[in-house]
Amino acid sequence: MRRMKAKLIAVGERAPRWVAEGFEEYRKRLSHWLPLELAEIEPGLRGKGRDAARAAQDEGARVLAALPKNAWVVALDGRGRAWSSEQLAQRLEHWRGQGRDLAFLIGGPEGHAPEVRARADEAWSLGPLTLPHMLVRLVVAEQLYRAAALLANHPYHRA
């Protein structure tokens, strides 16, 4: 059986070093359970005289172009479903059973373009807090590692 892979597609470039190092640490830990690739998407142009909706639309087009073929798409969105770590592990087991690769999407400052939300198979909320988008990368990688560790009966997760 082919091993499932995941791709984190995130609007924004050049994460602070501490975020990049943390993400890399969890990506490495996760690699034997769920290989995780990061694709950074160039943000749309914003600022004086610029249309933020147009910027989000441009980002959305680049996000959709980066999707792996036939992937199950999970958009990180505050309006999505919040899962406990145990529930995320159950979702991961469900996704594995589908035999498709995964794509996790992190939008820009305005969130996801309508076309991206329409393409997503489901939406995942990290909770009611507003988090810096760069930090979301690290949280997603850590939570995917925790979910995989739970499924493998690894001692990382101690409730």
Automatic annotation (TrEMBL):
Write out the GO MF terms.
rRNA (pseudouridine-N3-)-methyltransferase activity
**Enzyme Commission identifier(s):** 2.1.1.177
Q: What's in the keyword line of the UniProt record?
A: Cytoplasm, Methyltransferase, rRNA processing, S-adenosyl-L-methionine, Transferase
Gene Ontology cellular-component terms listed: cytoplasm
- Kindly list the positions annotated as binding S-adenosyl-L-methionine: L76, G107, L126, G127, P128, L129, T130, L131
UniProt entry tagged with the keyword Methyltransferase = yes
EC main group: transferase
Q: Where in the cell is it found?
A: Cytoplasm
Say where the protein is mainly found: cytoplasm
- Name the Gene3D superfamilies for this protein: 3.40.1280.10
Among InterPro entries, the record links this protein to: Alpha/beta_knot_MTases (IPR029028), RlmH-like (IPR003742), tRNA_m1G_MTases_N (IPR029026)
Catalytic reaction(s) noted: pseudouridine(1915) in 23S rRNA + S-adenosyl-L-methionine = N(3)-methylpseudouridine(1915) in 23S rRNA + S-adenosyl-L-homocysteine + H(+)
A Pfam family: SPOUT_MTase
> What is the recorded function of this protein according to its Swiss-Prot or TrEMBL entry?
Specifically methylates the pseudouridine at position 1915 (m3Psi1915) in 23S rRNA.
**Assembly and partners?**
Homodimer.
Q: Report the PANTHER family cross-referenced here.
A: METHYLTRANSFERASE, RIBOSOMAL RNA LARGE SUBUNIT METHYLTRANSFERASE H
Report the sequence similarity comment from the record. Belongs to the RNA methyltransferase RlmH family.
What's the protein name? Answer: Ribosomal RNA large subunit methyltransferase H
Organism lineage:
Bacteria, Pseudomonadati, Pseudomonadota, Gammaproteobacteria, Lysobacterales
